[in-house]
Every structure is written in structure tokens, then in C-alpha cells.
Write a structure and sequence with these properties.
binds histidyl-adenosine monophosphate, alpha+beta
Amino acid sequence: MNQQIKNLKGMPDIYFEEVEFWQELENTANRIFKSYGYSEIRTPIVEETALFQRGIGEDTQVVSKEMYTFEDKSGDSVTLRPEGTASVVRSYIQNNLSARDEITKLYYKGPMYRYERPQKGRQRQFHQIGCEAFGTESPFLDAEQIILMDRLTRALGISRYEISLNSLGLKEERQKYLEDLVTYLKKYEKDLDEDSQRRLSTNPLRILDSKNAKVAEICREAPVILDALGDESKRHFEMVQGLLSKAGVEFNVNPHIVRGLDYYERTTFEFVSDELGAQSAFCGGGRYNQLVSELGGKPTPAVGWALGCERMILIMMATRTLRDTKKPGAYFVALDDMSFQKSFELMQGLRDEGVACESGYELKSMKSQMRRANKLGYKYAVIIGESELAKESVVLKDLEKGEQEEVAFTDLISKF
Ligand code: HAM
């Protein structure tokens, strides 16, 4: 036998019932984004490596350790996108998307790639649905985006989750804070884990969201970024909080939400669920006012978030079952060759009207056909034999209730 080829580690297939959750997630997101005035953008999966190095930050875990980077045939360094923001910003600048209106609101969905150690809710190919909005510093936009995500989560039947909110202030405000933070952490340097010791000089903010228990303990007493905010940043943060409360969105302020990517300032947030184990965040985002200019565009404030589809679906699947009733439509059961041909024709008529139907492709025993009708979960079976054919009718059996009735060919469509 030829050797079987398997998928790459951390890049699973998605099929059957699980796909229905994906479609529900995507369809609901499409609908809700539209109602907030967002339009979809589709950017390539592969980009020049420099885009992510500059966009996400060289010192981040994602860029330094996790990128799928390789040389293409002409020797250029290219990378499978590890996230969507940098690509959307590139496209926003390159295609002059701001020309159409003062505010540009975009959303996207698709696969992302990070070379991480796979575990529950963490894969090497994973999918995000995300949004980016450009053109204003207004806290109304930050709040609106968090409300949008909150409403999407609820529309998917998820009710147990928490929103952690923080403000990282502006770069200048953070500068002073970082000095205080490093001074504080230096006192405990030898108790920090290796990663955190290194970050003391590269990215001290990240130490605050370390998963190491001892480091977390040390950080509990660390200076708090919120105390270092200037008046404008404080007012901005208070506005966001007020707007969320008015919209009925519950949140907790958590000064340790610093996020793993370098581009954030002011608002940052994460949605977390206890259904997910260690990888508890199913959405993260925040404001990034410098990124557009850092990638070569006119200075333009922006804010965005991305949710992890796999994590969202894990929660959906843990929270509820998609379908406890039968699926609409019919399975056709034919008892002889002539009826088999007729059912092929009748099915086509129904499908053309949008009714789902199926049957086998070869004549089999009635028992085996009925078994398949039940296995596939259809609400109805449509049974045709010699006598039905003569009367130009079918037997329509409700597989949920067990009742059946005779229905003329011409009336069949009215039953669905
Ligand atoms: P992020 O926090 O790196 O942010 O990713 C957002 C979400 O993607 C996470 O909360 C998580 O649900 C999911 N995710 C990340 N890595 C994996 C993985 N290896 N396996 C499964 N799911 C994963 C960003 O990517 C930013 N671009 C978000 C953003 C948009 N900020 C502003 N605009």
C-alpha cells in the first residue's frame, strides 16, 4: 500500500457538523458587521516579511519565534500572515482607502499562521474574524467596537464570558511608567523566570501578563499603568467605560491587559472564557494610533480587534448543541426503478425552489433507505412506489412525529 499523507501538525481539517458552527459564526458576523457599517476586505495570506516585522514589532513573541517565513523562488523573504491588522493597514495606505470617506471601517476573516505548540484552542493554522476602523480618536469608536463584539458573542448563544479592559495611555505616558515598572521589577530580578528577565530590557510591559505564577505574584504589587495616564487619556478611558455601561456591556478594568503585539496605545481589551483552559482569550484588540504612520501612511488613528474562530466555536460547542431537532427538507425513498427516476425529477423541482433533498444513487431496500433518511437527520421522508406513481402522489412521512399523509406531486412543494 502507498504511504498515507497526513495533515501538518496544528493544521486540522474542519468538516461535517463542526462546519455548521463555522457557517453560523461567519453568517452572524457578516450580518452584524453590516449593521455597524463595516465592509469586508480580503487581503493576501502571504506578504513581504518586513510588513509584519515593522507592523507587529521585532521584540514580540509572534515575530521573533512564531512566523512562517521563507524565501520564494526569486529569493524574497515572504511570510504567512500571523494576524490581519498589519495587512489591512498596508492595504489602507497602498490603495488610499481613506479617499472615500473620513472614516474607514473594514472587517476580515480567514486563516492565520503562527508556529506555536498546539494545544486546546491553540493551533498553527487558526482563523480570525476581525475588524479595523480608521480615522478618529473618538472613544465612541472604541466603545462601539467592543459593543459590536459583545453583541456578536451573545448572538452566538454565548453568555458566560468576561471582558477585561485597560488603557495603555500614549507613548509618552507609557515611557515614564515603563521606567517605574523596570525599577520595581529589577528589585525582584533573580526571582523572575528567564523570559521575563530578558523582557526587562526588550519589552517589560509583557512581563505583566506572564503566566508564570511567581512572576504574576510579583506583578500584583507593581506600579499600575492607569496611574500614569495623562488627563486626556484618562478622560478617553472614562468615556469608553461610560459608553459600555450604558450599552449594558459588563467589563472589569484589568491593568495587566497589555496584549502581545507592540502597536497598541490607550484602549486595550480581551474577551475571556473559562471554557477554554489555558488559552482563555477568544478575542483581543485595542487602539493603535501610530501604526498607519509607522507603515508609511499619513498619521491616522485606528482601533480594531480580532476573535479566534476555533476558540469561539469551542465555546459554542460547549455551551449548546446546534440542532436538537431534525433538519428541514426530505429524503426520497423509491421502491422500484420507475419511482427512482420520478423521485430524481421531483427532487430537482424542490431543490430549484430551495428545499433541501437527497436520496441514494442506486436503488436499495426500503429498510436501508429509511435508515439513511434517519441517519442524515431529515425531517421528512418522501416515499414513492408503484401505486403512488399511478396516482401521481407520494407518501410524505414526518420522521419526527411518525405521522404520514398522501400528497399529490403538484402539492408537494406547499408542504415545505
Ligand atoms: P491576538 O490577540 O494575537 O490579536 O489574536 C486575536 C485572537 O486570535 C486571540 O484572542 C485568539 O482567540 C486567537 N488566536 C491567536 N493565536 C491563536 C492560535 N495560535 N490558535 C488559535 N487561536 C489563536 C491580533 O491578532 C490582533 N491583530 C487583533 C487586533 C486587530 N488588534 C487590533 N486590530
